[in-house]
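Q: Got a minute? One more chain.
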Amino acid sequence: MRTPLLVLVLLMCPVAASAVDTAPLGVAHTSAKAGATETTDGAALAQQRRELIEARMWGLDLTELRRARQLLAGPRGAFSVPNISPVEALGIHARTPAERDRYAELFARLTHEDVERVLAFQAAYDAAMRRLYPDLRAIELNGRELPRGFIGVPR
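A: Always. Here it is, folded:
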């Protein structure tokens, strides 16, 4: 007698679950009205995760990143180079001097860290060139002189 009761409960669960649409993103559920299985799109959740990762990469929160994107969708995007960072956009359009200072400091830190990485790579490259090609000079003039006005050459 328990088996028919169990079957009845299992058959009713999808209908009962779909009566209240509380399924989390990315979970399939049955619609009682449509009678078909719908998959809630997990794309929104994935997009939010990507945004959160990008925001953290820039030292921003999600609200700040979204505001920067709105700014870049308007005149700021037209006036700026295509690769302007969200931190720069927010700093240019800061609403208070304190906000401008915060974004300026954040951008200074990010830029400094990037310069450190570039210089470290350049040093490694220079060492590799000296090791691999010890007799090769970076610039071989073959007896010619640099033109006047060239960097470091007096006019």
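A: Residues 1-31, 33-39 have pLDDT under 50 and may be disordered.
Q: Perfect, thanks.
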